[in-house]
Amino acid sequence: MSTTKEIQTRMTPSEALEQLKAGNERFLTGKMLSRDYNRELIETADGQFPFAAILGCIDSRATTEKLFDQGVGDLESALRHDGIARLTRTAILLRNCHATEGATNRTLNP
After folding, report:
1. Buried b (16+ CB within 10 A) or exposed e, 47-85
2. Spatial distance between the Cα atoms of 58 and 99, rounded to a whole number of angstroms
3. Domain span at residue 46?
4. Is the pLDDT of residue 60 over 70?
């Protein structure tokens, strides 16, 4: 089931981080949840309510939904930083590639 507006609104940043940690633990141990992605696409057709933003590298081998065992519409994944904090409950920066590291260094150390 995808994150609803009600779930997103009630979720605290700490709860969002715990959900990401739990999902990553499921990924690491090979105990990921079974998902019906077609149903989730239908559920999110009229809107999505991501609970976290993941800023990282675009790499088809390491999609954020897989790494954190989340469904369609649960995460906002991008290589951008403007305005994301107001859209979600928490933001995570994956520093796993040179492009992300360079952007972070320019933002944090102009």
Report:
1. ebbbbbbbbbbeeeeeebbebbbbbbbbbbbeeeeeebe
2. 10
3. 5-108
4. no
Domain count, the chain: 1
Please name the residues in contact with 104: beta carbons below 8 A apart, sequence gap of 6 or more: 93, 95
Three-state SS for 21-51 is: HHHHHHHHHCCCCCCCHHHHHHHCCCCCCCC
Looking at residue 109, its amino acid is: N
Quick: pLDDT tens for 1-20: 678 888 888 999 899 999 99
At residue 71, what is the residue type? G
